[in-house]
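Q: I have 261 residues here and want to know how they pack in 3D. Can you give me a structure?
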Amino acid sequence: MARNTWGAREMIAQLLKRDLTAQYKKSHIGILWMLAGPIMSVIPWLFAAKVQLYNPGALTVPLAVYLIVGRAMWGLFSGSYANGTSTLGSGGGLLMQVSFPHEAMLTKQFIQGITGFSLTLVTCIVVMLVHRVIPPWQALLFPLTILPIFFLGAAMGLIIGLINMVAYDLSRVINILFGFLMWTTPLLYSDKIPSPFLQVVIKYNPLTYLICTARDVLIHGHVYNHQVGIYALCVATATALFLISLRLFYVSEQKLVERMI
């Protein structure tokens, strides 16, 4: 699989360039939307908190920092999921007309997601510095903390993408349920909320430990709530699921392409 991907590196580069260019071709500010988008996405929540439409709970950093970094982590997860689900579908016409390693579409989708996240991270750092939140030296480990988030999102996306090719209705139901995940992860609010039920959901949600650890390492320099053991278990699970999903993709994608034809 790795050999096929390396052999198709020029094709991957061309597809990546085409999609990134087309995404903002008709926009006057172009790729700057990737930098401005995260700020615009948290403005409604800042307004809601300001007029007391919702209470984010007790926070150790300014709300703007908490929201924008949390949303960036969620964007990486949801983007990896979306790229995984659309790997075969996005190149359906090309897959049926040209013979090439189909791993190229998978690699292109994931590089595109990481590129978007990198630009979003620039905005996060700027917002942190504006609010005088200086990343600690432990933030150098931040790139390692985002890998499990990517792994879990990509694994879920690949598996749902494969299901989508044979059972579209089931994948639609799963996609609807996927939207609830954000509300069961402390991204827009503190984990110290008064609802006992939601506290239990947060406690047993693996995304809580993966996403919140990435945010806490960038801001505070430590694992979420210092729960290293649980975090390590979540990382191992996400990595295992990613490897399993890659194997499933590799052994089944040819049959699925034939089904598309």
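Q: Anything worth noting?
A: The chain has one domain: 2-260. The radius of gyration is 19 Å.
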